[in-house]
TrEMBL record:
Coiled coil: none annotated. This is F-box-like domain-containing protein. GO terms for cellular component: SCF ubiquitin ligase complex. Residues 66-112 form the F-box domain. One of its GO terms (biological process) is SCF-dependent proteasomal ubiquitin-dependent protein catabolic process. PANTHER family: PARTNER OF PAIRED, ISOFORM B-RELATED. SUPFAM superfamilies: F-box domain (SSF81383), RNI-like (SSF52047). Transmembrane segments: none annotated.
């Protein structure tokens, strides 16, 4: 039989519930209102089934600092850091002051590869301050930050750089390149290929590197007579010089041929095209001054004739000669070059003519290298090394 609820009966139940609530002790009430602790739980990976497991509490905290001074010797920490690449080393330096001081040691920053990176000017100077010796900035973009008027700029000390590759680098402001060159007075190798305008002030800073051996200025622009004279008058230990396609004026070409250092072993003076100053007389002047030349590139110098080959043959150490697209030279004169290892004449003769040269000039190799490697930082299989100096970490 169904039970019938009357209004009086409902009021009786509410009164009964109130009496039970009032009879509850304060301790029971606080227990009921307490929320469960969710932090010890975590969701485990798996299928659609939701499983929650209780996390095991860690051991009692200890006051021992296992990485503090005196526990692990500093020499051991230096050894550990020597196996880290630059990215992991920076992460380690951000953990504590001790690791930051250890990570700043110059032994970890002897070389650095920033190929194609976007980097601020202040960050680049901070890297140079860590006494980097070999720095690759090929195709990098260097930006300039905007600082408030009250910002205190740090004093830029002389850099320890010996090998610097800034080929195809992009500078937001030409003054950035000048600031970098102002810090570098001990360079052994420098590449400014495709770096845009090289003014007289930059040439003066380059000239301060009196021990410079490799200098690549290919496709740079705006060289003045004063700038080129400053460089060639101071850098008398140059072994490899590349000034191809630099759009030199006639006066600058004459001065360059007169001031080339006798120490040169590899020279690229290509791309003068129809400049009348790049003639047989200046080729004679080059051969008389630089008698130790082992490789000479005169490609796209269309004014020179076969008469210049008489002077080239006097270079006893010459092993590689490139005269590609020198249309003013009579092809029959090529047969007089008997003592070369490599002879590049791209665009001067036909395919049949190449076969004739290979048979008549044997064992000279014909048309082996279409691109010049004179003073070029990366050459051959070492795509991350510059002038045979490594720039890449082990991993």
């Amino acid at each position: 039989m169904d039970q019938t609820y009357s209004p009086g009966h409902m009021s009786y139940e509410l009164v009964k519930a109130d009496e039970d609530f009032l009879s509850t002790t304060p301790s029971d009430y606080s227990i009921l209102r307490r929320r469960p602790e969710t932090s010890p739980y975590y969701r485990t990976p798996g299928p659609a089934i939701s499983r929650f497991l209780r996390r095991r509490y860690s051991v009692e905290p200890t006051s021992s600092d296992y990485l503090g001074n005196g526990t692990i010797p500093t020499t051991v920490m230096y050894k550990i850091c020597s196996y880290l690449n630059k990215k992991d080393l920076l992460h380690l330096m951000s953990t504590c002051k001790r690791f930051r001081d250890i990570g700043k040691d110059s032994s970890f920053w002897q070389f650095l590869n920033l190929y194609g990176k976007h980097i601020s000017c202040s960050s680049l100077h901070a890297i140079i301050d860590r006494k980097v010796q070999v720095l690759r900035l090929n195709s990098a973009t260097i930006n300039v930050e905007v600082f408030p008027p009250w910002h205190n700029f740090p004093i830029l000390n002389p850099a320890m750089l010996t090998h610097l590759d800034m080929s195809s680098s992009k500078f937001e402001n030409p003054s950035v390149l000048l600031e970098i060159l102002q810090r570098c007075h001990n360079l052994y190798a420098l590449s400014l290929e495709l770096c845009g305008i090289i003014d007289d002030q930059m040439c003066k800073e380059i000239a301060k590197n009196t021990n410079l051996y490799f200098l690549n200025l290919a496709m740079a622009k705006s060289f003045s007579a004063e700038g080129i004279v400053t460089i060639l008058s101071s850098c008398r230990k140059l072994g490899e010089l590349n000034i191809g396609w630099t759009e030199l004026s006639g006066d600058v070409i004459n001065l360059t041929c007169q001031l080339l250092p006798p120490s040169l072993k590899r020279l690229s003076f290509s791309g003068t095209r129809d400049k009348a100053e790049m003639n047989d007389d200046n080729i004679k002047r080059i051969c008389d001054t630089c008698k130790q030349l082992e490789e000479l590139d005169l490609s796209d110098d269309v004014v020179i004739t076969e008469n210049c080959l008489d002077h080239v043959k006097n270079l006893k150490n010459l092993r590689i000669l490139t005269i590609s697209r020198c249309y003013g030279i009579e092809p029959m004169a090529f047969l007089s070059l008997q003592n070369l290892d490599i002879f590049n004449v791209y665009g001067c003769v036909t395919v049949e003519g190449i076969d004739v040269l290979r048979s008549r000039l044997r064992p000279t190799r014909i048309n082996v290298s279409p691109l010049s490697s004179i003073a070029i930082p990366t050459d051959g299989e070492s795509v991350t090394s510059i002038w045979k100096k490594r720039t890449r970490d082990w991993y």
